[in-house]
Amino acid sequence: MGGATLYPGQNLIVGYVAPANIKAMETVEGFQTATPVWKPILRTGSVESQGDAKMKADVFRSATGLDGTGVKVGVLSDSVSQVNGGIADSQATGDLPATVQVLKDGQSGDTDEGRAMLEIIHDVAPGAALAFNSAGGGPQAFATGIQNLDAAGAKVIVDDVGYLDSPFFNDGVVAQAADSVFTKGDLYVSAAGNEADKGFQTAWKGVTATIGSGAGQVTAPSSTSAAATSARTSPWPAAT
């Protein structure tokens, strides 16, 4: 397994395995299951907003003299310094301050959506210190990034990321991490979306299958037509 990261609190190892070697993982002591690490969904539109003026943040700064000084804002997205000249380009144009704390950047091919978010924050709160941690690498890495930004002193944390395998009916590791920093007094802000029509559709392919066990066991013949949505209902392991 390449690039492995251990998450002891969740009994998880996240890393890279060649498809041809997946079957062999069954022989590893303690192995239970393998799931893919999905690419994060970025909650961004096609047009950048003029948030500073729309929120009248410029009017507020002028009237109060408050500009974010003394507060560190942490951002989670795909990357911050992977496109063109990266952060240095934004600093050269005055769109970012001379110092941006990067705890973990994304990888080549990412879009620097995090840099765009930092630029907007710098417009609205030009006195605030800025920090970034990539949310790529799966929900576990995302949750760790939240905690790392808190540990780095961020009192406001914002993300524009979602994972399609996040649980429906209870808090997964990302939500637990957000809750944990919120209880410490941080403000946590997350973008939301319903993915619109980004689903999967195909012709029905009937199979005979048995689902569940004991009193809850159901056998459905291939001629059965039904629609179902499945999501985990039992509690997820703690994010810490």
Query: Can you say what the CATH homologous superfamily of the largest domain is?
Result: Peptidase S8/S53 domain
Judged by helices, strands and strand pairing, the structural class is: alpha/beta
The string of secondary-structure elements, in order, is EEEHHEHEHEHEEHEEE
Q: Mind telling me which CATH architecture of the largest domain this is?
A: 3-Layer(aba) Sandwich
Arithmetic mean pLDDT: 85
Number of domains: 2
Cα shape: elongated
Indicate the CATH topology of the largest domain: Rossmann fold
Number of strands: 11
State Rg.
22 Å
Helical fraction:
10-25%
What low-confidence regions span 5 or more consecutive residues with pLDDT below 50? none
Specify the CATH class of the largest domain.
Alpha Beta
- Biggest sheet descriptor: 5 strands, parallel
Strand content: 15-25%
Would you give an account of this structure?
The chain has 240 residues and is of the alpha/beta class. It has two domains: 1-35, no CATH class; 41-190, Peptidase S8/S53 domain (Rossmann fold). It is 22% helix and 19% strand. The chain has six helices and eleven strands. The chain has helices at residues 51-54, 57-64, 87-92, 113-124, 139-151, 173-182, and strands spanning 2-7, 12-16, 41-42, 72-77, 101-104, 129-134, 156-159, 161-162, 187-190, 209-211, 218-220. The strands form four sheets. The chain has a five-stranded parallel β-sheet with strand order 5-6-4-7-9, with helices on both faces. A two-stranded antiparallel ribbon has the order 1-2. Strands 3-8 form a two-stranded antiparallel ribbon. The longest helix is centred in the middle third of the chain and has 13 residues, at 139-151. It is elongated, with a radius of gyration of 22 Å.
